[in-house]
Specification:
Blueprint: H1 7-17, H2 24-31, H3 35-51, E1 60-64, E2 69-73, H4 80-93, H5 98-109, H6 114-129, H7 141-154, E3 156-163, E4 169-182, E5 185-192, E6 200-203, E7 207-216, H8 227-233, E8 242-249, H9 254-260, E9 265-270, E10 273-281, H10 284-292, E11 297-301, H11 303-318
Helix pairs in contact: 1-3, 2-3, 4-5, 4-6, 5-6
Length: about 325
């Protein structure tokens, strides 16, 4: 705004941006001026917002008859309902340690309007009190994420110290390609020298140390990673070849299966029985998901998946004999 604007107008403007609500009378009493003067101040702010719509994200001052107060509105700002949804999803991931999650939540809460901040803080606070983070072997998942993202952007090789599922430690020089998130964990998709054209997955919370190498790599079509295609065909974050599977489902919610496997589609239906086909990465994750459905699922093809299902079921039976 122009330099000769009063400190009072700037302060009112700042308070609106913070989400405060007030009317002319309360402002007049606060600044010891007339309500008419305050109305002129509000008009000056309105004019500024109108003249700089793009710069101010199309924000505008409106008078709420319900609240009997002025408020700042913008389509570009998060609504309280949107912010609440984001916070609930974030808390549900349980992927960050408690301190990091609390810091993020507190910062996001500041973007809500003042009149609803207490409501949001109360609701989210109850969940934070019971927040249980997933175990992590690194100092900070957030710091690991950002370091890897920078190396992907810079096309820089990295060397990582990594804990495998059996808790043995390995060291790998990697060409980082992408970061994905699935069921509580972030994953690094990368290539190494042992199988240079085969993407491998590393849980970021198990990366104990990252060293940024001085060596850089160039774009190569064989290393191009398609996140969208990967997300459609690999929901279980286990490596494997893409195969077409077919199975019979008799459970209560076919939609739950279709939501879990984006490429799945129903090709035949008879009462509660649905025949479903899908293209997915064949690996341990697929087997674990199909087994989790119990007797609701019967695999029809391919034969190797049928054999793997039978073998796993036999192993499970021996545990109870």
């Amino acid at each position: 705004m122009e330099k000769n604007v009063s400190d009072r107008v700037l302060e009112i403007f700042y308070r609106l941006i913070k989400g405060e609500i007030f009317n002319s009378r309360s402002l007049a009493e606060n600044y010891n001026v007339s309500a008419k003067t305050i109305n002129r101040d509000i008009s000056r702010i309105k004019n500024f917002l109108s003249e700089h719509r793009e710069l101010m994200n199309y924000a505008e001052i409106v008078y709420s008859n319900k609240l009997k107060s002025y408020i700042l509105q913008s389509d570009e700002l998060l609504k309280n309902s949107e912010l609440f949804a984001i916070l609930k999803v974030l808390l549900g991931t349980r992927c960050f340690n408690r301190d990091d999650m609390l810091s993020i939540v507190q910062k996001l809460e500041k973007f809500t309007t003042l009149q609803n901040r207490d409501i949001l803080t109360d609701i989210v606070g109850k969940e934070m009190n019971c927040y249980s983070e997933v175990h992590s072997d690194c100092d900070s998942v957030i710091e690991n994420l950002w370091q890897i993202i920078k190396c992907i952007e810079e096309k820089r090789y990295i060397t990582v110290v990594y804990l495998k599922m059996d808790r043995s430690e390995i060291v790998r020089k990697l060409r980082p390609a992408s970061i994905m998130f699935s069921e509580y964990y972030f994953y690094l998709i990368a290539y190494d020298d042992t199988e240079p054209e085969k993407a491998k997955y590393f849980r970021i919370d198990r990366i104990r140390h990252i060293r940024e190498n001085r060596e850089f790599f160039k774009d190569d079509k064989k290393y191009k990673f398609n996140e969208g295609n990967f997300r459609k065909k690999n929901q279980f974050m286990f490596p494997g070849e893409v195969v077409k599977i077919e199975f019979e489902f008799t459970g209560l919610s076919v939609q739950a299966v279709l939501d879990r496997i984006p490429t799945a589609r129903v090709i035949k239906k008879n009462g509660r029985t649905s025949i479903i086909t899908a293209e997915v990465n064949y690996g341990r994750g697929l087997l674990m998901y199909l087994l989790s459905q119990g007797a609701w699922i019967k695999v029809l093809s391919p034969q190797m998946l049928i054999d793997d299902m039978k073998a796993e079921i036999e192993k499970m039976k021996t545990l109870y004999e």
